[in-house]
User: What shape does this take?
Amino acid sequence: MSAVCQVTGREPGYGKRVSHSHRRTSRRWEPNLQTRRYWVPSERRWVRLRVSTKGMKTIEKRGIDAVVAELRAKGVRC
Assistant: This one.
């Protein structure tokens, strides 16, 4: 399963880990993803989403109905 937020589209960031001797190796910063169930009152059912914590704030602000409608318009299965 890829590390991508379904609401915001956030993906891992890539960079280099630098040791004390200044050797560089690759690393990645993972987004803070959580699997959450949201009750969608208009459909009278639960929807399971894989969202970042920023995505959770977006859902709280705009409402789950608006977010789910936008995801369906984009073609995301939820």
